[in-house]
Amino acid sequence: MRILQINKLYPPHLGGIENVVRDIAESLAIDDSFQSDVLVCQEKGKRAVEKINKVGVYRAASFGRLFSLPISLDFFRLFKKMVKDYDLILIHHPFPLASLARFIFSNKKIPVAIWYHSDIVRQKILYWLVFPFLYLDLKAAKIIFVSSHQLAQKSSLLRRFIDKCQVIPFGVNLSDYQTDYQSEAIALQAQYGRFMLAVGRLVYYKGYLDLLEAMKSTPGKLLIIGSGPLEVKMKQVIIENHLVDRVIIISDRVENLIPYYQTCEFLVFPSSARSEAFGLVQIEAMACGKPVINTNIPTGVSEVSISNESGLTVPISDPKQLALAIKSLWDDNKLRLGLGIGAKKRAESNFSKNKFENDLRSALLKTIE
């Protein structure tokens, strides 16, 4: 079975969707019954074609990005040339270029599957420009994958195609998180002492400004691992509110996050917009036995970590409630440890990479039967 995944970008670009695309591609590539390739864009530069861990990676030439969307004519040339050679096209949305390319060069004989990661939230004008093409993609799709029930039920667009939606939650390789990084943990404790952790790109929908506001009235030290366009503003807020000794941003790339998860007291995941559809870092922290403070976004975020089972859930963009949750977990050892046990059990029961891969492989095979 020849499968072509289509997405904006591919690792080493950092991003949750990019990691999912890579994991799917590589898990299929090790199975002799699949040929697994991906079509993406360069962040900027000439076309490149390479083989990475048995996956054919085709990166279309790009002039750069505008509003996070690659500017690439070469993508359309590659799309037209390549799609006819595959048994199934799996498009990861939101990616307007893919919708437009499929509309122009569509071949109704080739089955299409859609992985719908999130609604287009902030770029309202862009959304209404691409809505007709996205709608046609969903209409043409034989199956629409989503990571949570809430995303399928709460998205106004997906509700129209609810019968096509199949929920397959993401997963992680749980054994990776059982490795003991004791020496690294000792070094982190010596450097930072006790700390809570936040992980993710420094962008508007991650809710970091709410988190900084909450930190003004809570105890404890916070490590934020990530980089992005909000970094300068966040550092300014940290200085202005005298949080320099308690809030540390680690913007350099961290190759291995597991020692940070194992050493922290808990994870704070304060996302504030529907652009955040799942939050894989929640599973990573839970797999290390750490509770999660998340928000009740109407997506899969609060389906990953359940309030009072594996962590605490607070209202969106509510620094006061966020501060109370942080204080509860920071001060109450019994509560924190109990929720940590629940977090690990939930990760092991629901979010293994093997389960994710087996469920997806089975669903893909059914689409061409």
Overview of this structure, please?
- By secondary structure, this protein is of the alpha/beta class.
- It is 40% helix and 18% strand.
- The protein has helices at 16-29, 74-82, 96-105, 124-140, 149-154, 182-192, 208-215, 231-240, 258-263, 280-287, 301-304, 319-331, 333-350, 353-367; strands at 2-6, 35-41, 48-52, 55-60, 65-66, 69-70, 88-93, 112-116, 143-146, 165-167, 196-199, 222-225, 247-250, 267-268, 292-295, 311-314.
- The strands form four sheets. An eight-stranded mixed beta sheet has the order 3-4-2-1-7-8-9-10, sandwiched between helices. A three-stranded parallel beta sheet has the order 11-12-13, with helices on one face.
- A hairpin with a 2-residue loop joins strand 5 and strand 6 (69-70).
- The N and C termini lie close together (11 Å).
Strand arrangement across the biggest beta sheet: 3-4-2-1-7-8-9-10
Provide the succession of SSEs: EHEEEEEHEHEHEHEHEHEHEHEHEHEHHH
N-end to C-end Cα span: 11 Å
CATH topology of the largest domain: Rossmann fold
| CATH class placement of the largest domain | Alpha Beta
Low-confidence stretches: none
Estimated structural class: alpha/beta
Estimate the mean pLDDT confidence. Answer: 92
